[in-house]
Amino acid sequence: MASAPRKRPAAEPRAGQKLSPRGELKRTQILDAAAEVLAVRGFAGTMLSEIAERAGTQAGSLYYHFASREDLIEEVLRRGVTLTMAHVRAALTELAPETSARDRLAAAIREHVRFQLDVSAYARASARSTGQVPAEMRARINREFRRYGVFLDELIMEAMADGAIDPGVDRSALRMLLIGAANWTTEWFRPDGTSNVDEIADLLVRLMLSGVAKPKPGRRLPKKSKVD
Amino acid sequence: MASAPRKRPAAEPRAGQKLSPRGELKRTQILDAAAEVLAVRGFAGTMLSEIAERAGTQAGSLYYHFASREDLIEEVLRRGVTLTMAHVRAALTELAPETSARDRLAAAIREHVRFQLDVSAYARASARSTGQVPAEMRARINREFRRYGVFLDELIMEAMADGAIDPGVDRSALRMLLIGAANWTTEWFRPDGTSNVDEIADLLVRLMLSGVAKPKPGRRLPKKSKVD
Amino acid sequence: MASAPRKRPAAEPRAGQKLSPRGELKRTQILDAAAEVLAVRGFAGTMLSEIAERAGTQAGSLYYHFASREDLIEEVLRRGVTLTMAHVRAALTELAPETSARDRLAAAIREHVRFQLDVSAYARASARSTGQVPAEMRARINREFRRYGVFLDELIMEAMADGAIDPGVDRSALRMLLIGAANWTTEWFRPDGTSNVDEIADLLVRLMLSGVAKPKPGRRLPKKSKVD
Amino acid sequence: MASAPRKRPAAEPRAGQKLSPRGELKRTQILDAAAEVLAVRGFAGTMLSEIAERAGTQAGSLYYHFASREDLIEEVLRRGVTLTMAHVRAALTELAPETSARDRLAAAIREHVRFQLDVSAYARASARSTGQVPAEMRARINREFRRYGVFLDELIMEAMADGAIDPGVDRSALRMLLIGAANWTTEWFRPDGTSNVDEIADLLVRLMLSGVAKPKPGRRLPKKSKVD
DNA sequence: CATGAATGAGTATTCATTCAT
DNA sequence: TATGAATGAATACTCATTCAT
Asked: Is C117 at the interface with chain A, CB within 8 A?
C-alpha cells in the first residue's frame, strides 16, 4: 500500500537490444564520444556534458541510451579491452601458420601498441582510466581484463616453451611491464608526426626480446675506441 | 572548480615561507596526505575533504596553507618529480666513480622504480595524475618534468657514447617506454608481498639492456655473428 | 512540471468524444492504469511512464488521448468521486422504499467504504491524492467533490429531520470525520485477507450511530432495551 | 590501488551530535521548515528548494546538516510520531489519577486531534506523507509508528477490560478508523476560524463512545434510561 | 494511432571556497 | 591558526512533453 520500488524511466531501449538503426547509430556516436573524452580526461574528469556535446546531443538524452554515467563508461572500458584483444588476435591469425611463438608474441605487443595509438579511442580510454574506476565497476570489468591477460600470458608461455624466451622470467611481471610501457604511450605520444607509431612499437618489441644494449663493450672486438 | 577563482585571498603565510614550526609541520602533513590521495584517486578524483581528513584537519583549514586546490596539487606533483630526480641522482652519486655509463643508467632505472613503489607517495602521485592535469598547470609543472627528462636523457647519451647502448635507438622513445613501464607499475603492483619491488626493477633493467629472449634457438654459438 | 505548459497541441480525439472503439478502449485502459498508480503513489509521485507501462503503451502515446499529465489525472480524480457517488446512490436506490433515513445514511457510509476498498481504484485514487493536487486543478475538480458532499449532507439532514441523529451535531464536521475515516482505510487496509471490508464498514457505521462504549458501567438497567 | 568507496563530504556534524548552538539552531529551523512543507506537499511533492527557502538557507546548505533529502524527511516523520505520542502521553499524565480508562482513551483521541491541528507541523507532516514514503524508509520509521499504535492499543484494551468499551470490537480496526478520521482532518480543516478544533476533537470522541444517533425513533421505550 | 527518440527545464547532490569567530 | 557553517556553481539524473516517422 505504501510506495513500491521504482526504477526505469519512460523508454527502455537499454533493456532490449533491438534498436532501430537510427537509435543504434546515436548510441554508437555516444560511445565513441565517451571513449574520446575518457581517453583524455580519465574516469573522474569525464563529464556527461562533454560527451553529449561531442556526440551532438543533450546531456539528458544520454539517458535514453544508457542507464547511468557509470553504465556508459563501463561499456566503453569493456569495449576497450575487448576490441584490443580482438585486434591483436586477428593480427595473429593473419600470420603465416609456421610463424614462431617468439614472433607471434612480438606481433602481439606490436599490434597492441599500434591499435592503441593509431586506431582506437576505446583502447586509449581503457588504458588511461581503468586505474581510477570505483571498485564495484572494477570488479565487473575485470573479467575482460583478465581474459586479455591470460591471452597474452599464453603467448608468453608458448614462447618460453619454444625456447625463445627465458623461462626463468616472472611472466606476470614481464607482461605488466610490457603492457605498462604500451599503455603509457598514450600519455606522451604526439599524433602530430613527431612520434612514429611503428618505431615505438618496434622499439618495445626489441626491448622485450633483446634490449638495446650492444654486446658488452670493452670485451669482444675493438670497440674500445670510445673510452669517453 | 566551483565558485569564481580568485588569487591568494586568505591569510598570508603562503607569501613568506617562514612559518612557525607548527605551521610548517601541518603544511607538510597536508602535502603528504595530498600525495597519498592523488596517488590513488588521480587528479580529478582527489577531494580536499579526503586530504583534510587524512591530515587531521578540516577542508576549510587547508586554505590557510594553500591558496587553492590547484596550488596544493601542483606542489605535490612538482615534489613528485623533484624528489624522484633527487633520489635517483643521489643513488648515482653513491656508485663507485668508475661505474660504467651503462651501469649508471641501469641504476637510475632501478632506483626510479624502487623510489616510486617503495618510498614516495609523491612519486606515485606524479606518475598517476600528471596525465589528467589541466593544461595551465601542466605548463607550469613542465619545467621539473623536462629537467628530469633531460637528466635521464643524458644518462642514455652517455651510455650510447660509451658504446653500451645502440646509438641508433630513438632516445626519447626509449626513455618514455622505460619511464612508462616504471610508472605503470603503480597500477598493478601489490604491496602485499605478492609482487617484489627489486625483481620488478631488475626485470625492467634487463628489458632495457638485453631483453628476455634466449639466443636464437637452434643456432648454437654464432653469438658473435650478430655484429649488427 | 517541466517544459512550458501548453494547451491541447496533439492530435484531436480529445476534442470530439467520438473515438473509434479501439481508441476508446485504450483510453479507458490508460485511465484505469492511472487510477491504480495514483491510488498508490499519490499525485506528485505518479509518473506517466508507470501509467504507460501498466496500460501497455509508451509514455509518449498518452498524449494522443490526453492533453497533459494534469488532464489525465484530473479525469481520474473526477471519476473517482463521480463513480463513488453513483455507486452509493445506486445502492440507496435498491433499498426498500420504506427504509428509514437512518438506515439510508448507514448504507451510504457502508457503501462508500466498500466501493473504495473493494471495487474502485478510481475511488482510492481520489481519496489518496486529492490532498496534494495543485490549487488550480483543485478548483476545477471541486464541483464534483462538493456535489458528493451535498449528497451526503442531505442524507444526514434527513436523518436529523427524522429524529435519528442528534440535530445538534455539526453536520459538516460529522461528514468529514466519517469520510476521513473511510478514506484513510486505503492507507492501512490489507487486501490480503487480514482485514475484512465488511467488518470495517460496519464498524464505521456503528461508530457513527452508537459508538463502541458499553452503557455506563455500574448502572445495570435496561440493557436489553437495545433490541437492534 | 584502485579507488575505494567514498562518502561523507567535507564536514560531518551529522555524525556527532555535538553542534554549536548556532548549528543546532539552523538544524532545527530546517527541520521545522521541512515539516511545514511536508505537511502541505506530501513526500513526493516536497522540494529541498522550498524547505531551504523557508529555512532561510540555500538548498546546498541543507547537506551540511543532513546527509540527504531522505534523511531529513525521515527525521521529520519520525519526530512527527514521537512528538504526538509524547504529547498525548503527557496529557494523560496530567489527568486525575482516578480517571477512568474510558476517559483516558477519550482524552488521548482528543489530544491527538488537537496536537495535529493546533500545534505541530511535524504531526501533520507524518499524518499526510507517511503513506507515500518509499518502502525502505517506511521500514525504518515503522518502529515509531508501531510504538504509538501499541500505546493506543493499550488504552483501548484497558477501556475494554474496564467494561467501558465493547470487547467484541476489532481493536485494530477501531484504532485505525479513529486515527484515520483524526489524520484526515488535516485535509479539510480550515485554520481560519471556520472550523473549531475542540469541537472536532469532541465530536470524534463522541463518535467513538456513543455515536450521534438518537435512540431509535418511533419506538417509545427506555428513552429516559439514558440520563446522559 | 503509436512509438522511438530526443529535449530541456528542473531536482538532488557534490565540493571547492569563503569567512566570522 | 583553525574550524564550524555556509555558499553557489557545477553535475548527474529525472520526467513531462514533443514530433518525425
From this structure: no
Region D187-202: mean pLDDT is 91
Residue B112 CA to residue B120 CA, distance in Å, equals 10
Q: SS3 helix, strand, coil % of chain B, rounded to 5?
A: 70, 0, 30
* Cα separation, D67 vs B23, whole angstroms: 32
Asked if the Cβ–Cβ distance from C59 to A6 is below 8 Å, we say no
Other beta carbons less than 10 A from residue D16's beta carbon: 7
CA B138 → C1' E18, Å?
27
User: Strand, helix or coil at A46?
Assistant: coil
CB of A62 less than 8 A from some CB of B: no
Chain centre to alpha carbon of residue D76 = 11
- What's phi and psi for B175, nearest 5 deg? -60, -45
Å separating the CA of residue C184 from the C1' of nucleotide E11: 30
Of the candidates D28, D21, D120, the residue with the CA atom closest to the CA atom of residue D66: D28
Q: What is the mean pLDDT of residues B182-186?
A: 95
- Report domain B74-212's class: mainly alpha
Rg of chain A over CA atoms, in angstroms?
22
| pLDDT tens readout for residues A94-103 | 999 999 999 9
Residues 137-196 of D with CB under 8 A from B: none
The kind and range of the H/E element at C7 are: none
Which amino acid, one-letter code, is at D219? Answer: R
**Lowest model confidence (mean pLDDT) among B218-222, C58-62, C149-153, C157-161:** B218-222
Residue of B50, B112, B153, B212 to mutate, interface with A, max A Cβ within 10 Å = B212
| pLDDT beyond 70 at B220 | no
Provide the 3-class DSSP secondary structure of residue D213: strand
What are the grid coordinates assigned to C44, written together? 506528485
Distance between first and last Cα of chain C: 55
Strand E bases contacted by the protein (CB, 7 Å) = 1-19
A70-209: which CATH topology?
Tetracycline Repressor; domain 2 (1.10.357)
Contact criterion met (CB below 8 Å) for A155 and A105: yes
Window from C11-15, C78-82, D108-112 with minimum mean pLDDT: C11-15
- All 3 cell numbers of residue C49? 511512464
CB atoms within 10 A of CB A30: 25
Distance CA B30, CA C183 (A): 60
Annotated domain spans of chain B = 74-212
pLDDT at residue B219 greater than cutoff 90: no
- Per CATH, the homologous superfamily of domain D21-211 is Tetracycline Repressor, domain 2 (1.10.357.10)
The CATH number of the domain covering residues in C69-209: 1.10.357.10
Query: What's the whole-number average pLDDT of chain C?
Result: 87
Residue D189: helix, strand or coil by DSSP?
coil
Q: Which residues contact C28 (CB under 8 A, 6 or more apart)?
A: none
Distance of alpha carbon A118 from alpha carbon A110, whole angstroms: 12
Per-residue burial over D61-79, b if 16 or more Cβ lie within 10 Å, else e, is ebbbbbeebeebbbbbbbb
Q: Do chains D and B touch (3 or more CB pairs under 8 A)?
A: yes
Q: Find and list the nucleotides of strand F having atoms within 7 Å of a protein beta carbon.
A: 1-19
Identify the burial level of D219 via C-beta atoms within 10 angstroms of its C-beta, where 0-12 means exposed, 13-18 middle and 19 or more buried: exposed
Does any CB of chain A come closer than 8 Å to the CB of residue B206? Answer: yes
* Alpha-carbon torsion, ordered C12, C17, C20, C23, to 10 deg: 70
Q: In angstroms, how far is the first alpha carbon of chain D from the final one?
A: 81
Candidate from A70-74, C1-5, C174-178, D159-163 with smallest mean pLDDT: C1-5
Closest-CA residue in chain A for D1? A131
Q: Give the mean model confidence (pLDDT) for residues C189-201.
A: 91
Q: Which helix (H) or strand (E) holds A214?
A: none
Res. D156 pLDDT band, cuts 50 70 90 = very high
Asked if the Cβ of residue D6 lies within 7 A of any atom of strand E, the reply is yes
